[in-house]
């Protein structure tokens, strides 16, 4: 595992009893530690109308974190492109790349990052924008290359080499990433069903491009690391409660851990949540070394991206520190 890259996906999770400002401060502390520990990149995900996710203004948070760090790559995992004009995205990320050269990633997804009512509030009459996702990705590439056919320039943005990633949880995203010769990041941390099939499809159909010579896969997974398996399982009950809220539609701020999930979720809720959490790794360093080693060997991924929902900030920092130690073994 010593050869694999490792990174962080952050949702600026809002924790019960704390504020959004606290979430942003925690993200800064986590990113600064991640940089010291050799993490490759630190990404934020665009979501909307979720009380426990504060990363809705994704490009602003990317700039904030980039300004508080020095070397780690910072980017989006992802920007939901149908929510935005490709020109505006090109300008925003052109600005970020101009401020922090060589450190900005642009990961793109096609989902709304929320419910349909919120999507309509964002997209209005442009609700069919997701169907034009491939064309909008190409439009972004043209803006960065400075050869857009409509005569409009992205300033800043034009002429900048900003890596574009395709994000997804389905086979469609795998096909697009392969056809465009772009790196591919899969959301296996909450949508595991098509993961193995999607990365196989991506590799099989990959067409080398000026951006990428060979397929490159990031798998995002949930990780909770602690000194013992029992402690990790205890800390992970906060994440399980969070997913129960997703299943039931009753979202909540990240709650404190509990001794047992018995009585908190029903059998059906547990089964649904644990299916979504298929690619989750909770445990001590020894346990993670064994389980992650098998996962990496079986999938052949080039990079592991961890998202860690832990109630206590010090325990969260420790989890990322232990993960780095495992992956450097």
Features:
single chain; 329 residues; alpha/beta; TIM Barrel; 9 strands; 43% helix; 15% strand; globular; Luciferase-like monooxygenase
Question: How would you explain this protein's 3D organization?
Answer:
This protein has 329 residues and is an alpha/beta fold. The protein contains twelve helices and nine strands. The protein has helices at residues 20-36, 58-68, 86-99, 116-123, 133-145, 171-180, 195-205, 229-235, 237-248, 267-276, 285-299, 313-327, and strands spanning 5-10, 41-44, 73-80, 104-109, 164-168, 184-186, 217-225, 280-283, 303-307. α6 links the parallel β5 and β6. The chain starts with a strand and ends with a helix.
Topology order in helix (H) and strand (E) letters:
EHEHEHEHHEHEHEHHHEHEH
The main β sheet shows up as: 8 strands, parallel, barrel
Number of domains: 2
Integer-rounded radius of gyration: 19 Å
The CATH first-level class of the largest domain comes to: Alpha Beta
- End-to-end span in angstroms? 7 Å
What is the CATH architecture term of the largest domain? Alpha-Beta Barrel
* Helix proportion range: 40-55%
Q: Structural class, from helix and strand content?
A: alpha/beta
Stretches where pLDDT falls below 50 for ≥5 residues? none
SS strand fraction? 15-25%
Within CATH, the superfamily of the largest domain carries the name: Luciferase-like domain
Mean pLDDT over all positions: 94
Q: Within the largest sheet, what's the order of strands? A: 1-2-3-4-5-6-7-9
Helical run tally:
12
The CATH topology of the largest domain corresponds to: TIM Barrel
Number of extended strands: 9
The global form is: globular
């Amino acid at each position: 595992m010593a050869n694999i890259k490792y990174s962080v996906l952050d949702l600026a999770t809002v924790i019960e009893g704390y504020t959004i400002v606290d979430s942003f401060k925690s993200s800064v502390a986590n990113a600064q530690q991640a940089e010291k520990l050799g993490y490759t990149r630190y990404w934020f995900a665009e979501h909307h109308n979720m009380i426990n996710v504060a990363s809705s203004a994704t490009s602003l948070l990317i700039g904030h974190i980039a300004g508080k760090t020095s070397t780690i790559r910072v980017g989006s995992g992802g920007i939901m492109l149908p929510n935005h004009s490709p020109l505006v995205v090109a300008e925003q990320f052109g600005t970020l790349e101009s401020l922090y050269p060589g450190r900005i990633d642009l990961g793109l997804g096609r989902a709304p990052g929320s419910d349909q009512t919120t999507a309509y509030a964002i997209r209005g009459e442009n609700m069919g924008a997701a169907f034009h996702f491939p064309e909008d990705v190409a439009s972004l590439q043209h803006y960065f290359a400075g050869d857009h056919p409509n005569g409009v320039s992205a300033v800043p943005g034009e002429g900048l080499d900003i890596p574009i990633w395709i994000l997804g949880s389905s086979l469609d995203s795998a096909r697009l990433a392969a056809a465009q010769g772009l790196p591919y990041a899969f959301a296996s941390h909450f949508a595991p069903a098509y993961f193995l099939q999607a990365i196989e499809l991506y590799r099989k159909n990959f067409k080398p491009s000026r951006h990428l010579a060979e397929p490159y896969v990031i798998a995002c997974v949930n990780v909770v690391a602690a000194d013992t398996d029992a402690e990790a399982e205890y800390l992970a009950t906060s994440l399980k409660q969070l997913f129960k809220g997703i299943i039931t539609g009753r979202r909540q701020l990240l709650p404190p851990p509990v001794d047992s999930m018995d009585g908190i979720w029903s059998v059906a809720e547990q089964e649904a949540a644990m299916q979504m959490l298929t690619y989750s790794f909770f445990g001590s360093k020894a346990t993670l070394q064994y389980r992650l080693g098998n996962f990496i060997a079986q999938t052949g991924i080039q990079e592991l991206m961890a998202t860690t929902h832990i109630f206590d900030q010090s325990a969260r920092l420790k989890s990322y520190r232990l993960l780095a130690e495992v992956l450097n073994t």
